[in-house]
Design brief:
By secondary structure, the protein is an alpha+beta fold. The protein folds into 4 domains: about 50-60 and about 310-389, Efflux pump adaptor protein, beta barrel domain (Elongation Factor Tu (Ef-tu), domain 3, Beta Barrel), CATH 2.40.30; about 65-95 and about 275-305, RNA polymerase II/Efflux pump adaptor protein, barrel-sandwich hybrid domain (OB fold (Dihydrolipoamide Acetyltransferase, E2P), Beta Barrel), CATH 2.40.50.100; about 100-135 and about 225-275, no CATH class; about 145-215. It has 7 helices and 17 strands. The strands form 4 sheets. A 6-stranded antiparallel beta barrel has the order 1-10-16-13-12-17. Strands 2-9-7-4 form a 4-stranded antiparallel β-sheet, with no helix packed on it. α3 packs antiparallel against α6 (about 215-245). The radius of gyration is 51 Å and the shape is rod-shaped. The two termini are about 70 Å apart.
């Protein structure tokens, strides 16, 4: 047995020796080197070399929609893949109370701005104009004489006659003053003397007013009345202009104007409250996600629908290394290979993110690339390879 094994080994050694002495060329096997993570080199799109990175086709406009209020879903108006317009309601919560609040706010504002409301405001404006005119006349009257010279002289004559009448009445009363109280003569004389004195006092007061000047209090009151009338007129004018939809100053005031502005604010708040119960698409596009059905409870803030504009696409890189980002500039030309269609598209860099991200432990920067054209079949989400010229 040992002899057979030894013979086999000798034959094997002999064959090996013959092979080593042959003139046949030796072909070496390729050596496989595993990427240690330090290399960032990838297969170039062309033979021109340069920085390369992977990326993805991304829509220019994407709207992620969520309810700001929680509630039970009443309606879902779209399905996955539907085309929608900006402002279209995609889904709606049970919002009967919000709709009622909006209706009430609309009625209030409609009543204030109705033809009857505008007519009432115009009437108030006319009254304010008359009040200002009256206040102005009262103020002006303080400047001019209160009576003519003839009237002053006539009043002075009446005072002289009244003084004589008081003197005669006083003499008559003294003659009967000793009579007991209740005596008819004494009572008649007393009444006559009193009436004469009151008449004299009235004439003296009239004369003093005719010949006197207004006091500081009179002047202040007249000015205050005029200022109040001016302010009321201005506020009436602002209110009427606001009702008609005309431009008014930002600092316009007035209780009526404040009520009108409050009615407008209430309407706006009611509309916003109702809008919060609806998923309203802010853009036109395609429904890419719809994750709600009628009867579901929709929590606030959860993304339930996504609308994308598939007519406007760009590319965003995902793994541009920190060692290569310095070689990339805004405006730089690029070539994009769409893996799904094996088609190359040209473009240019429009933005480089100033903030880094991490990918598998590597620091990377996102760049945004505008495409020169959108070939048929290009869809959002497709992966691409990008070569920076």
């Amino acid at each position: 047995m040992k002899t057979k094994v030894l013979v086999c080994l000798l034959v094997l050694f002999a064959l090996t020796a013959c092979s080593s002495q042959s003139n046949t060329p030796v072909t070496t096997l390729p050596t496989v080197v595993l990427d240690s993570g330090d290399s960032t080199t990838s297969a170039p799109l062309t033979s021109s070399g340069g920085v390369t990175a992977s990326g993805m086709v991304v829509p220019d406009h994407e709207a992620q929609l969520a309810f700001t209020l929680g509630g039970n879903v009443k309606l879902v108006n779209v399905a996955l893949g539907d085309q929608v317009k900006a402002g279209q309601v995609l889904a709606e919560l049970d919002n009967a109370a919000a709709q009622m609040q909006l209706n009430q706010a609309e009625r209030t504002l409609r009543e204030m701005t109705s033809p009857a409301g505008i007519a009432a405001a115009a009437q108030a404006l006319a009254t304010a104009k008359q009040d200002l005119e009256d206040a102005q006349n009262s103020s002006d009257s303080l400047i001019y004489p209160r009576a003519s010279d003839e009237l002053v002289k006539n009043t002075q004559g009446e005072i002289d006659l009244a003084k004589q009448q008081v003197a005669r009445a006083a003499d008559a009363y003294r003659q009967v003053a000793r009579l007991p109280d209740g005596n008819p003569k004494k009572a008649t004389a007393l009444v006559a003397m009193t009436d004469a004195q009151l008449h004299l006092n009235s004439l003296i007061a009239k004369y003093n007013w005719y010949t006197g000047t207004p006091s500081d209090i009179d002047a202040a009151k007249a000015q205050a009345d005029k200022d109040a009338a001016k302010a009321a007129l201005q506020e009436a004018q602002w209110f009427l202009s606001a009702l008609k939809g005309e431009q008014i100053p930002d600092d316009a005031t007035g209780s009526s104007l404040a009520a009108l502005e409050q009615a407008k604010d209430n309407l706006k708040a009611a509309q916003e409250n109702l809008d919060a119960t609806r998923l309203i698409s802010p853009i036109s596009g395609t429904v890419a996600v719809i994750e709600v059905i009628p009867g579901d409870y929709a929590p606030p803030g959860k993304i339930l629908a996504v609308v994308v504009d598939t007519t406007k696409l760009h590319v965003e890189t995902t793994d541009l290394s920190e060692r290569d980002v310095s070689k990339v500039q805004v405006g730089q030309q690029v070539t994009v290979l769409v893996k799904a269609t094996n088609e190359e598209i040209t473009g240019r860099v429009t933005a480089i993110s100033p903030l880094a991200d991490t990918l598998g432990g590597d620091v990377v920067y996102k760049t945004t690339i505008a495409l020169d054209n959108l070939p048929p079949g290009l869809l959002a989400g497709m992966s691409v390879d990008v070569q920076f010229e």
